[in-house]
Amino acid sequence: MLTARRVGIWTIASLLGVLDVMVTGPFAQADDGRGIFGGVSCAAGGCKVRAETRGRRTAGVSREGMAHSRSSPLQHRRSTSSKSPTVTSDGWEYGLGDGLGILPRFDGGKPKRPKRKHHQKVPVAVVARRAVESLQLPKPAIRTSPDEDFVQVVGVPTWMWVEHGTWRPVTETAVVPGLRVTATARPRQATWSMGEGGSVACAGPGTEYSGKFRPDRPSPDCGYTYRRSSSGEPSRAFKLSVRVLWDVEWHGGGQTGRVPGLVIAAERPLAVDEVQAVVVR
């Protein structure tokens, strides 16, 4: 329902000449004979307006409800053609017939749906690199026989292996909108540096020594025999190290690729001693 304040505003605007349309009788009639007002009657004391909620919607704007507001800016559009003038309020356009009135404001309109963001297409190679960089490759755990915490003996075969739990495929996946790339790393070779100048390349993790083997038997796939003692080294031990080589394959977005040569290394001291034979006569 319109307030007396709004009717007064309309009356003052008419007296000041801001609006050049003279109200001579019932107005705001739309094509159906009722328009947006239930009826308007004017007398010397002012006009009484009964407002309804009709109107035709302008393009791109939605309407959920209706409420009154004193702060609603109304735009009056005079037509130069034979069409009736219109008023636009909060995106709604109203036909006024041959008259002019004060319209209620629509508050709490339906929120506009946010525009969908267009994600920039990320190259497959970039996502593949993310997947490869996310790989958490395990550090190899060095094991020997005789046990690495004890002394190796010159001339006695030393068995080397890395813990088999660290010798397994590792997989990571990188995801961006519309693209998923999976990278899988597999250990391929372990290269041992024995500390006295020799090295051994093993195709697998190495065979773990057990009591079923004779003590003097060499490792079937990853072993070494020291030729001298480590007693002359600064720490009286050689630096034993192993470098595990990993190959990575990735696939995603209809493409595949390889990243060879990732290396994870570990090292530890290893003491080697000589056993002197005692001849008894």
What can you see in these coordinates?
The chain has 281 residues and is mostly beta strands. The protein is built from two helices and 16 strands. The strands form five sheets. Strands 10, 11, 12, 14 and 15 form a five-stranded antiparallel beta sheet that branches. A four-stranded antiparallel beta sheet has the order 3-6-5-4, with no helix packed on it. Strand 10 and strand 11 form a beta hairpin.
Low-confidence stretches: 1-80, 102-106
Number of strands: 16
CA(first)-CA(last) distance = 129 Å
Shape: elongated
> What would you call the quaternary organization?
single chain
Q: Treating each run of at least 4 consecutive H or I residues as one helix, how many helices?
A: 2
Major pleated sheet: 5 strands, antiparallel
Give the helix proportion (percent range): under 10%
Count of separate structural domains: 2
Radius of gyration: 45 Å
Main structural class: mainly beta
Strand fraction equals 35-45%
Could you spell the SSE succession in H and E letters? HEEEEEEHEEEEEEEEEE
Organism: Streptomyces violaceusniger (strain Tu 4113)
Protein name: ATP/GTP-binding protein
Region (Disordered): 51-90
